[in-house]
Amino acid sequence: MRPPTHILVVNGVKVRQPVFVLAAPHSGADLLARAIKRSPGVHLTMGRGAVSRVVYAFARRPSIARSPGAPRVIRDVLAEAWQVVPGACGECSGACKEAGGIIGAGPCVTASELTRFGDASPDLLYSAPVLLQAFPDARFVQVIRDGRDVVADMLADPATMAWFKPHMLADDSEFPSPFLGVNSAEHKLRWKEMPVAGKSALRWRAAIRLSAVLRKELPADQLLTIRYEDLHKSPAETFGQVGEFLGAKISTIALYGTAAPRVGARRRLAHTDAELVGKVAREELKRLGYS
């Protein structure tokens, strides 16, 4: 039985059906978030410092996310992030400011026009069960992308590569570790010696498995899954689905320019890396139709 909906009021607006965008790294959550963030009346945050600290604590220490106080912690930190006050955007990430078209300290929205809240912080996927406890009426949109393209973009991102340093699996690490894709302590040494392409594939594979669990457990009116490739091939139709699901007007204009989704990043993979990714993620690639 789900807990009763907690009554949360931010800037005089009752938080109802908050929107959370979920995806594996470099799978397009930021692109979808740009579009939702620019929808009328929506205040969607991306990577606020306090939120990110909680999200990564839950991701790297699943036991913390399972503690009784976890829903209150993430609810409180999001309520703070959603406050619309002078200078609030000064604490936002560069991606969030850019998505909202903000120069300076903001704010990016007008409090009097707010009707909806949401968040699309990186790696929010690992906090999905806690978010559902904190906001039982939440709406989740998850983005799926070809794992080979994902790995190619991960390899080109220094911030992502920083998670793969050997010390990230310390002696006190918890297993299984969906965040790094390592199932047991017995695999620590193998993970540390694995090329970064393999580690990236493990992260994608674990994220896809989490997404599959969400699809199985959440009703259709609370979870929508879209493909990154559809943002490239048919953005208007895909955003139409998202808009209908959220009951919001979403424009494709957010995808214009350098942020436009592209496919085929896997062509940048070295042959040995491509083979390794195919070996690690073969089952998930096949199940998702990425031949």
Provide structural commentary.
By secondary structure, the protein is an alpha/beta fold. It has 2 domains: 1-145 and 219-260, Rossmann fold (3-Layer(aba) Sandwich); 148-218 and 263-291, no CATH class. The chain has helices at 29-37, 49-60, 62-65, 70-81, 94-100, 128-134, 147-155, 158-161, 188-193, 196-217, 228-233, 235-246, 271-280, 282-287, and strands at 9-10, 13-14, 19-23, 42-45, 116-119, 139-144, 223-227. Strand 1 and strand 2 (13-14) form a beta hairpin. Helix 1 packs across helix 5, helix 2 runs antiparallel to helix 4 (70-81) and helix 10 packs parallel to helix 13 (271-280). The longest helix has 22 residues, at 196-217. This is Sulfotransferase. GO terms for molecular function: transferase activity. It comes from Herbidospora galbida.
Helix and strand composition category: alpha/beta
**Alpha-carbon distance between the termini?**
40 Å
Cα-based radius of gyration, to the nearest Å: 19 Å
Give me the strand/helix succession. Answer: EEEHEHHHHEHEHHHHEHHHH
Q: What is the number of E strands?
A: 7
Query: If helices are DSSP runs of H or I spanning 4 or more residues, what is the number of helices?
Result: 14
- Poorly predicted sequence stretches spanning 5 or more consecutive residues: none
Main beta-sheet strand count, sense and barrel state: 5 strands, parallel
Number of domains: 2
What percentage of residues falls in helices of 4 or more residues? Answer: 40-55%
Named at the architecture level, the CATH assignment of the largest domain is 3-Layer(aba) Sandwich
